[in-house]
Structure formats: C-alpha cells, structure tokens
Amino acid sequence: MLNRYCSVLRVCSPFKLLTARTRSAIVVAMRIFVFSLFLLILSTHAIAANSAKKFGGIGIDGAPWADGRIVVKQLVAGGPAHLAGVKAGDIITFIDGKPTEGSNFREMVDHRLRGVDGTPVTIKIRRPGSSKLLTFNLVRKQLVIPPKSR
In what helix (H) or strand (E) does residue 17 lie, and over which residues does it extend? Predict the structure, then answer.
C-alpha cells in the first residue's frame, strides 16, 4: 500500500496515507481552531480595553443609523452625558468636530467616544423637534455599570 502512494526515492508524507474524508475533516478542524483563536484574541482585547484602569466613556448606549449618525438609545445614570443633559432619542451628528454621517459606527464608538479616562470629548447633537445643534463638552470617565438583576 505504501508503494501505491509513495515512490522509493521520495519520503512518504503521512498526510497522503489518510483517506480524503479524514483529510477534509482535519482541514475543517484546523480552520475551526484558527477561527476560535481569532475570536479569543478579539474578545481578550475587548475585555482588556474595557477593564483597563485608564479606560473611559461618556455613558451612552447608541445605535447606528443607515447614514452613519448615532442615535442615543439609553444613558448610564450618573455618566457624563446624562449629567450634561443628553437625552435618549438625541442624534449625535459630530464627535470632536468630525461628522458621524458616513462614518463607521464601530470606529466612532471605539476611537472617538471611548478613550482615556479624564480626557475631553465634544459632541454635537440634534434633538428631535429642534432645528439647532446642541454642543456638549464632556469628560470621559470610568463607568461602573451595575449588573442586571434577575
């Protein structure tokens, strides 16, 4: 059987001795393993970023609109945005002078709204029913979100 897969002059690869079904199962298992490592690295990075001592935010839970703007769904009680007067339903149109329209939601949240604890961020919002933009100068702070009660 070895002669069928390997010549006398070449070294036989153990991978060649496996059936096609076994080889494809190994390839699938390797892909799943690599993907799970990738997810582990991403989740570890996210947990580390959120639990770092210097991590801060403004206390907004937002949702993206199709055009890239961010609508405020809810606020963290006692967070910078809540204390400044931002309300649920407000639409964030600018973050630090850069428009949110046409931007990537995840990038806006991770790199503009979140940041080092104690650093300033300026947001402009459009409140439904009002035509003028409201400007809020906020300072990021480390937020403690209470666990959900069951």
Answer: helix 14-17
CB-CB contact of 101 with 93 (8 Å): yes
pLDDT reading at 109 higher than 80: yes
Give the contacts of 97 (CB within 8 A, at least 6 positions apart): 122
Prediction pTM value: 0.60
Buried b (16+ CB within 10 A) or exposed e, 44-83: eeeeeeeeeeebbbbbbebebeeeebbbbeebbeebbbbe
Q: Is the dihedral of CA 75, 81, 83, 89 positive or negative?
A: negative
Q: Is 117 helix (H, G, I), strand (E, B) or coil?
A: coil
Structure tokens at 138: 């906020």
Question: CB under 8 Å to 104, separation ≥6 — which residues?
Answer: 68
Which among 82, 86, 57, 83 has a CA at the least distance from the CA of 71?
Answer: 86
CB 85 within 8 A of CB 136: yes
- pLDDT tens for residues 118-128? 899 999 999 99
